[in-house]
């Protein structure tokens, strides 16, 4: 597995949404190991507190429903009051419900878009305003910043690269993330705030365990059968681990990625190549 680079993000403050488990937890571990102070922004309070206790290193649990913009505004204010600033936003939180396109209800649609589109957008917008506020006035007046003043990494998916008959609402939300990323990258370029997206493939998280359960039952497979079928289709012939995704996030947050913005990076073992 990719190894952390000690001191890479020393002194930085990061908000990681959905960091109570799965990919988000892996990202929080990695950034903390590399010197950042991480805020575990998580809907489930118990998961947030358990993650912060496990990670240590100054990690802070912050229970929040990112689908509520007022809660996001309060979170950003509280983080700045506690930590002094925000350098990274990792917009990882997301929800899914595996079902056939013709079975999606208006409530199903709204639930997915509320978090995956609306929640992500207003987290980005609110944190971007704070990042701009941290920039010296003379730099803002110049309309051209000499170095990066913040890193935002949004989470799309390989489902944002092509349609999914059993995840049409989720796929639509993840296509939207790529559009939001490009729009934000253009809007924030004058401040040299880098905005990029990650498109993970199969990662054995609780979300993928649920996908396997539903799809295996639908197609008459044993438990784990759908996941194995999906892994067999990956050119590198293995599922990703949270550490694989976290390594890509760490790179995009580093000074090595200062000249990268508006991009959507597939981290999927080769399953999507566009």
Core attributes:
274 residues; alpha/beta; Rossmann fold; 2 domains; seven-stranded parallel beta sheet; 9 helices
Can you walk through the features of this model?
- The protein is of the alpha/beta class and 274 residues long.
- It has 2 domains: 13-201 and 241-267, Rossmann fold, CATH 3.40.50; 204-239, no CATH class.
- The protein is 46% helix and 14% strand.
- It contains 9 helices and 7 strands, in the order βαβαβαβααβαβαααβ.
- It has helices at 22-33, 45-55, 69-83, 106-133, 137-142, 168-188, 206-218, 225-232, 242-253; strands at 13-17, 37-42, 60-63, 88-91, 150-155, 193-200, 264-267.
- It has a 7-stranded parallel beta sheet, with helices on both faces.
- Helix 1 (22-33) crosses helix 9 (242-253), helix 3 runs parallel beside helix 4 and helix 4 packs parallel to helix 6 (168-188).
- The two termini are 25 Å apart.
- The mean pLDDT is 95.
């Amino acid at each position: 597995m990719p190894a952390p680079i000690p001191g890479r993000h020393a002194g930085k403050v990061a908000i990681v949404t959905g960091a109570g488990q799965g990919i988000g937890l892996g990202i929080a571990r990695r950034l903390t190991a590399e010197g950042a102070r991480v805020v575990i922004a998580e809907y489930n309070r118990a998961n947030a507190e358990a993650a912060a206790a496990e990670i240590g290193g100054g990690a802070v649990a912050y229970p929040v429903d990112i689908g509520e913009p007022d809660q996001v505004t309060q979170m950003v204010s509280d983080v700045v009051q506690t930590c002094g600033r925000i350098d990274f936003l990792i917009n990882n939180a997301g929800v899914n419900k595996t079902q056939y396109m013709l079975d999606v209800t208006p409530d199903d649609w709204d639930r997915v878009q509320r978090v995956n589109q609306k929640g992500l957008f207003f987290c980005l917008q609110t944190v971007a305003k704070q990042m701009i506020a941290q920039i010296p006035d003379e730099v803002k007046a110049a309309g051209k910043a000499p170095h990066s003043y913040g890193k935002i990494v949004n989470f799309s998916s390989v489902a944002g690269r092509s349609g999914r008959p059993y995840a049409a609402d989720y796929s639509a939300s993840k296509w939207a993330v790529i559009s939001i990323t490009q729009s934000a990258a253009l809007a924030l370029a004058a401040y040299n705030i880098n905005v990029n997206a990650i498109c993970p493939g199969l990662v054995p998280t609780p979300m993928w365990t649920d996908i396997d359960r539903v799809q295996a039952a639908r197609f008459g497979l044993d438990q784990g059968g759908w996941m194995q079928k999906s892994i067999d289709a990956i050119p590198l012939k293995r599922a990703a681990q949270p550490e694989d995704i976290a390594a890509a996030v760490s790179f995009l947050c580093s000074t090595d990625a200062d000249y990268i913005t508006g991009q959507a990076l597939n981290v999927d073992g080769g399953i999507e190549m566009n």
